[in-house]
Amino acid sequence: MKMKKKLSEKAVYTILWTSTAAAAALVIILTVFAASKRAEGDRIITAPVGSIKTSVTTKKPTKPPVTSRGDTQVDGPAISFIAPVSGKVSKGHSLETLSYSLTMNDYRTHSGVDIPAEKGSAVVACLDGKITGVYKDPLMGNVIELTHEGGYKSVYMNLADEMPETIAEGKTVRAGQTIGAVGESAICELADEPHLHFELYREGVQIDPAEMIDFGK
Q: Which of 21-30, 68-77, 122-131, 204-213 has the highest mean predicted lDDT (pLDDT)?
């Protein structure tokens, strides 16, 4: 019975040793396999950048050139305005800050720019366009409205009574073409020196003409 017990213990030890050795061998095999895979992956990742070709290219988006007389940048196609009359602005565009009116003796907004000029001085179209209004305003006197490309509209006020025979609603005009003359027909600005009251709109919204036209300093 003692011999049988000893043989049984020896067999158990043998089995345990064999199992342990097999497990160790398996760990070694797995470790070597994993190392080889990592080495292979490293070779792929560290391949020279120049050896990888691609047909994908990138290009920065560009905006269409937009300019105006006076190098003012605005959204929309390139449109070049010219001054409707020669002279510097005496009273600027102001819809937020009130300016004093000599004629009305009060402070009020000013919806355009006033450009002093001798009475009778030629007033020209600031841009190619179509005449969409010729009328007399109760306060601003004789008025001509032009509609232009790009959603613009220009308005010329305080004009003289005499106008060229070719000026009538529906007619087209070219930039620089004479459409009227400086007058004194605006009763709300009679105390000011003779001038052209000029307004500019974009998409129905009034804007400062000085943003689009260089009137000088």
A: 122-131
Residue 155 confidence (pLDDT) above 90: yes
**pLDDT for the residue 109:** 72
In order of 171, 175, 184, 195, the CA distances from 133 in angstroms are 10, 17, 19, 20
Longest dimension (CA), the chain: 143
DSSP SS3 for 5: helix
Backbone angles phi, psi at 198, to 5 degrees: -120, 130
Structure tokens at 111: 């919806």
Q: How many CB atoms lie within 10 A of CB 216?
A: 11
Spatial contact of 200 and 212, defined as CB atoms under 8 Å apart: yes
Residue 98's φ and ψ, nearest 5 degrees, are -75, 140
β-bridge partners, 134? 144
pLDDT one-digit tens code per residue, 103-154: 767 677 778 999 999 999 999 999 999 999 999 999 999 999 999 999 999 9
Residues with Cβ within 8 Å of residue 211, at least 6 apart in sequence: 68, 72, 74
What is the pTM assigned to this prediction?
A: 0.63
